[in-house]
């Protein structure tokens, strides 16, 4: 006598579950990126002065700070693979709890760190270690938070839902630059003595709120359904991803690199750049970045919403076109020396150039992979794209702007256009992912009907 297959429990999320998942993903990502981007904001303004010898050339100190920044990006794919492995085998919720706790502890440690004057070479080495731990945590955070939001809603709304978690990035950037900018108004000696530390220590309060929200959220309905149906494997998810989705993974990595380069360029490089030109002081520049990041919070969901209506590929290709057209005018505004034009440059860069291609990225990557491989797949593609784009951005920009060909920021613009062209080609070669699950369900039903 044939054994009956156990019924798969109902996993349709209630409105309350969906709302709680969206809020939890948004707040958690905000806290994570507040911690992660706070280092980026401080890397060009504070760390070269405090964590390296005072006799060191300032340019070299800034470069080494950016190298440590890159170390955090390099460790992100490792964190993505690590947390993706357990997230695909045991669920999303617990992994997100752990990553948030790690980020908060590291930020507090940075805020309490002795400087080079106190412990010598141990200061930058400790900074490297803490930055690597940060990278591991963020590597597991982005994919998990994006999936928790996307997998708690109906498929037709997944672009918008995934973008809610993605907006944690600019929201964290707003908080980081706003808080650091407020303390940057202190006299120089006070800011360097203790003012820069307060934003890092404030992370503890944000983490408590984020952990509370994550404790209350339910596990991803998609994961629960896959687990009940016996689709969650006991093997190694990263090996399955590399074997099953080689081209999808490659296209995802290259599609993410271009917009992520612009994100890091604006958040890390351009503030010290405009300050060095004498156009404005560091507090004013940070406030400009903060305002553009605030607009970014609304621009990302807008472009994601467009992708729910018209598809991921059309919107992202449109964003690539906007990026190519506007990048040279953006740098012209940055080099104008005019207060209002520089403010406009930040707005052109963040909520227009960056958001137009970045808004749909959460759903674009998530829909490339099946549920049982999704955490690992999204982590791998996004974090490797982050290394290629965001992680190298400050170093590449520093090198390109210093080339002796006299083109300055024009060199950065050309490099960015190359990245965007590669990203656009990758999107063009990718299959449209909007409505993929519905199409698969229809095909399965037709095959079942024909077999009867």
Automatic annotation (TrEMBL):
Residue ranges of domain Major facilitator superfamily (MFS) profile in the record: 21-434
Top-level taxonomic group: Bacteria
Keywords: Cell membrane, Membrane, Transmembrane, Transmembrane helix, Transport
Pfam families cross-referenced by the UniProt entry: MFS_1
Listed Gene3D superfamilies: MFS general substrate transporter like domains
Location, primary (coarse class): membrane
Localization per Swiss-Prot or TrEMBL: Cell membrane
Keyword Transmembrane helix among record annotations: yes
TM annotation in the entry: 64-83, 95-113, 119-139, 160-184, 196-215, 250-273, 285-306, 315-334, 340-366, 378-400, 412-430
Membrane topology category: Multi-pass membrane protein
Tagged with keyword Transmembrane helix: yes
Identification of the protein by name: MFS transporter
Organism: Arthrobacter ginkgonis
Record lineage: Bacteria, Bacillati, Actinomycetota, Actinomycetes, Micrococcales
């Amino acid at each position: 006598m044939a054994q009956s297959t156990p019924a798969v429990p109902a996993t349709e999320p209630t409105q309350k579950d969906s709302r709680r998942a969206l809020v939890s993903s948004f707040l958690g990502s905000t806290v994570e990126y507040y911690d992660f981007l706070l280092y980026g904001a401080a890397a060009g303004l504070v760390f070269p002065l405090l964590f390296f010898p005072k006799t060191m050339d300032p340019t070299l100190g800034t470069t080494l700070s950016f190298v440590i920044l890159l170390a955090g990006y390099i460790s992100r794919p490792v964190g993505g693979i690590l947390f993706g492995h357990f997230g695909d085998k045991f669920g999303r919720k617990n992994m997100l709890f752990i990553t948030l706790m790690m980020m908060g502890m590291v930020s507090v440690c940075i805020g309490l760190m002795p400087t080079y004057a106190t412990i010598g070479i141990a200061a930058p080495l400790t900074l490297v270690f803490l930055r690597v731990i940060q990278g591991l945590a963020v590597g597991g955070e982005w994919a998990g938070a994006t999936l928790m939001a996307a997998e708690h809603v109906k498929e037709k709304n997944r672009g918008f839902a995934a973008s809610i978690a993605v907006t944690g990035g600019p929201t964290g950037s707003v908080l980081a630059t706003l808080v650091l900018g407020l303390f940057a108004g202190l006299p120089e000696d006070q800011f360097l003595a203790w003012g820069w530390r307060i934003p890092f220590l404030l992370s503890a309060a944000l983490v408590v709120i984020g952990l509370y929200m994550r404790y209350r959220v339910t596990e991803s309905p998609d994961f629960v359904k896959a687990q009940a149906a016996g689709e969650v494997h006991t093997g190694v998810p990263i090996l399955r991803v590399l074997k099953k989705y080689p081209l999808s993974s490659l296209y995802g990595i290259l599609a993410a690199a271009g917009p992520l380069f612009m994100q890091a360029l604006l958040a890390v490089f351009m503030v010290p750049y405009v300050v060095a030109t004498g156009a404005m002081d560091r507090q004013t520049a940070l406030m400009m970045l903060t305002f553009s990041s605030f607009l970014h919070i609304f621009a990302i969901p807008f472009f994601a919403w467009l992708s729910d209506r018209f598809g991921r590929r059309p919107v992202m290709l449109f964003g690539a076109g906007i990026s190519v057209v506007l990048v040279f005018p953006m740098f012209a505004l940055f080099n104008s020396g005019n207060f209002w034009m520089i403010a406009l440059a930040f707005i052109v860069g963040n909520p227009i150039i960056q958001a137009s291609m970045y808004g749909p990225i959460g759903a674009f990557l998530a829909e490339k992979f099946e549920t049982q491989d999704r955490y690992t797949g999204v982590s791998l593609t996004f974090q490797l794209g982050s290394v290629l784009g965001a992680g190298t951005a400050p170093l590449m920009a520093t090198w390109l702007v210093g080339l002796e060909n006299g083109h300055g920021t024009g060199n950065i613009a050309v490099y960015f256009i190359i990245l965007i062209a590669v990203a656009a080609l990758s999107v063009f070669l990718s299959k449209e992912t909007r409505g993929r699950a519905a199409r698969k369900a229809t095909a399965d039903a037709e095959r079942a009907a024909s077999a009867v």
